[in-house]
Amino acid sequence: MQGGIAQEELKEKTEEKQGAFAKYTVKDSVFTTLFQDKKYLIQLYRALHPEDTETTEDGLMDITIRNVLMNGIYNDLGFRVGDKIMILVEQQSSWTMNIIVRALMYLVQTYHDYFEEQDADLYGSRKVHVPEPELYMIYTGRRVGRPEAVSFSEEFFGGKECAIEVKVKVIYDGKGNDIISQYVAFTKVYNEQVKQYGRSREAVTETIRICKDRDVLREFLADREKEVISIMMTLFDEERIMRTHIASEKKEAAKETAEKMLKMGKLSVEEIASCFTELSVEDIQEIEKGLLQTV
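Structure (tokenized):
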């Protein structure tokens, strides 16, 4: 527990330095934080359903699947409109059809949670109530002729009729200055600032300044500027952490293989080193030294 507190304190101090890195999932973090506030969630719902003028903030229920366990499934945003509609929204900056599979998994888990909440008897003869599902992907990358919707059967079975069908509507921008348009504009400003300043605190603060000047999420950024900066910044971005972890795993595996080769005694240190991109001659010599000490 103390180690966790110390790490948090180190993180807070590091974020004050100009050299801190912007969190790799910055746009996802802002997306999630923005729509956790019902004031903005109702704006999103009205952008998706402008015909519904009666639903209020109280009529929206957050059903986002949160990653409580390390390997648990989680999604960007899920909310229910009474017992009528179940809406799941994902934000993507890179194009992938795997979003359809993930949306299916999120939907199944969300329905499972709903039926448990309702204490529904799925084995009874009486038909249970099922809220109508709506699946969306807000895509903030380059459109370049992307479709209006993506379909499970079309993408994975060549349009062949199958037992499961999932359709995800793709949103590239909103209308006018609605909350979707503002969020997409925010991501574009951030991308421009990262190109100029890299993943730095300056890129983050400039993004916030420019967006407020342009009336893009101005109220949200003004009210929660410190929080937004906090969620956008971290000592190492997630991409770097993943790269470092994978490289470390590969090197450890290479060391184990090199140790076995040394024990066989058929190749020289230099020959063994030439078999690996992860290990140098010095690394092999260090492994050899360790083996000699254990003899």
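Residues 1-7, 9-19 have pLDDT under 50 and may be disordered. The chain has two domains: 17-235, 243-294.
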